[in-house]
Amino acid sequence: EDTPDDRIDCPELRMMQLARERTSIPIPRVHDMIPDEPPPGTLYTKATHGIVIMDYVHGDLLGDIWPQLNLWKKLWVVLTLRRYVKELRKVMQPYNGCVGQLSVTGQALDCDLPGLLEQRNEIYSSYDKLKNSYNRRWKWKGQDERSSYADPLTLTLCHGDLHKDNIILGHDGQIWLIDWGYSGFYPQWFEYRRMFIMGSLATCNKKVIVPKDRSWQLLSGIVCDYDPWTLTWYEQLCDVTLCKET
C-alpha cells in the first residue's frame, strides 16, 4: 500500500502521494502512519503527529557531498531539480482553488510557510482571496494600484523546502526528494523564494554551523525560474503590517 489509511488526515503524506502518482520524481513510498502525541515543547502543536513508516533510501544527503561534486555533476543535479519543479507545476489540484495543503476532504488548511505566509494562521479557500489580501496591504501602503498583485498563473504544487538536506543522491543513481512538510498548492514563484531562503540561512550540519550558501541562492533561479518583478514587489510589501480582514 502506497499511502496511510485515509482516516489519518496527514497533509504532508497526502502531498507525497499526489506527487508520486502524478510525476516521475523519486519519492520514498509511505507504507503506514501510526498516530502519536507531539513531543514536549514542539512548536507545531496543530500539525498531525505520528510515526511514519516508509522506504529507506540508500544514498547521501546532497548537503554532505555537494562540495565534493565536480562541476558537471552539480550541473546534472540542478537540471534534474529544474525538471522536477516543472513536473510539479503540471500537477492539477484534486480540489479546485485552495491555497496550501488540503485535508482529506479537500478543505483548505491554515497556511504557515516561513518567509511567505509565516505565522499568519490564515486560510485561503481560493487564490483570489490570497491576491486580495496582498492587494489590501499594497493599497494600505499607498502604492499605485497599477502595480498591484495580479498573477495570471494558476496555483502549482510546490515542494516548499528545496534545500540540500532534503535531497538525496541515491546509490541507484537517482535524485530523491524528501521532507514534504511544507509542500502544497501555492503561487509558482513561492518555490523560488523558498529555495532562495534556504540558501540564505546558516544550517547546523553534524554539529558544525554551515554558513549561508550563496551558490544555492543563485542556482535557485535556474531550478525555479527567476522572477525579479514579483520578488521585488513582495520585498516592498514585506515591511507593511498586515491589514486585518474586515
TrEMBL record:
Residues 12-191 form the Aminoglycoside phosphotransferase domain. InterPro entries: AGP_Transferase, Aminoglycoside_PTrfase, Kinase-like_dom_sf. SUPFAM superfamilies: Protein kinase-like (PK-like). Pfam families: APH. This is Aminoglycoside phosphotransferase domain-containing protein.
